[in-house]
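Hi! If you just cloned this repository, the fastest way to understand the data is to look at a raw example. We've pasted two of them here, unedited. The first protein comes first, obviously.
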Amino acid sequence: MTEALPQSVLFCCDHNAVRSPMAEGLMKKFYGESTYVQSAGVYNDLEIDGFSIAVCKEKDVELSRHRSRSFDDMQQWGDNLSSFDLIVALTPAAQRRALELTRYFHLTIEYWPILDPTGLGETREAKLDVYRQARDQIIARLTKKWGQQHSSA
């Protein structure tokens, strides 16, 4: 049984450069505008990963304009974590930081263990295959939780 889509979701990982931008883009693609979706990282020290852009483009998800941001950036820009219905942490560090920042808020934090594809694979094609595995793990988690995509992919 799938769940109803939440009003708002924040995906987070370590650097907001690989997994959380993929999750944000895929969710927007699959479920359209019915849910407010953002992503953030524990740190904001990396640009969006080129392999993430490439494997999401295969699913018609555009990530090249994504700008990485951290939880601290969000707070500085006035984004209130308590306004999200659900925070999905894709790494243990992101889960710890989300729990720490939201301990006084009533919201749900889930941990989805998604493969970290960075540094894996010797050739370009092998690297792409590992990134596809991470992307496909995210797709599987999205569709298991919220059902089949509502918009075309």
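Ok, and the second one:
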Amino acid sequence: MRLITVEEHFTTQEIIDENNKFSEQNSKPQDPKLAEFYKSMVFVGKALTDCDEMRLAFMNSRKIDMQVLSYTSPVSDKVPANEAVRICKRANDILAQKIQVHHDRFAAFATLPMADPQAAADELERCVCEYNFCGALLAGQFQGHFYDEKIFLPIFERAAKLDVPISFHPAPINPVIQNYYYTSPEYSSFIAGQFASAGFGWHIDVGIHELRLILSGIFDKLPNLKLIAGHWGEDIPAYLDRIDYIITPESAGLKRKVSDYYKEHFYITPSGILSPMQFEYIVKLMGAEHVIWAVDYPYIRNGNFYDFLVAADFLTFEQKELIAHKNAERILHIKGEN
């Protein structure tokens, strides 16, 4: 059974240096709570930049046939709009060259210059039409703005027109929110950093982002729009019944219930979280047609991701095939096996 994973990260030192050049000029000192945590993640460095031996060896050892590569966050919100456009184009050109070398093993999501939404929409179309990219990945917010705001609508309109999905990924949250919710004198700054980021805070932030888009009415405007949410949906699936009870279509000015939009327009991935209970719940809630596989490489590398899927005895073989590769082939326009 073919296995395609869609949340697999990549960068190059050139792009890191470009981004850091502007970030260092315009940034305040990094919050020590996150600084400590980020230092603990240095181990991913070579795995993140390697697109040959190390990555392919991992894929082969885990029975992964194809990774959809993405830059987690190549351009910070401190980079001026014109420079962000230039850096994103360069980043996408580099990624296109990398996947061409192993075109049977890699596909890609574009990275977009969110400082200029119209240019971002154009860059998405360029990457899809010239390089056969599968869509785009957006990380977190932009300068404190969520993407439900009208200024960002051209990006989603273009994705719907091109029939490609937008994948949402966590990123550092607002420092005020971080300090208010996640800092305590009762535990260390390192724990506060973990709690505010990959341990919990990032994921809640993305879940709020998902709901804001639904409540903005974007799916009534763009009925063809598809979004990908990792980490089993960033906690939103468990609250859909409650949300429907409180936020009705009438009160929100929507045509349908929040859960209806979610189940139709969102595609959920595990992002390497091998939880049998969450897996079964998501499949029962969303249907196997709305689950796509993902490892979150290289941040997650421990686990038998293929075997975990195969061992899911609540799934039929046909459902396993949908989750393993057929949904990704359909939604991302990836060619199936010959």
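That's it. A detail worth noticing about the second one: Residues 52 and 159 are 30 Å apart (CA to CA).
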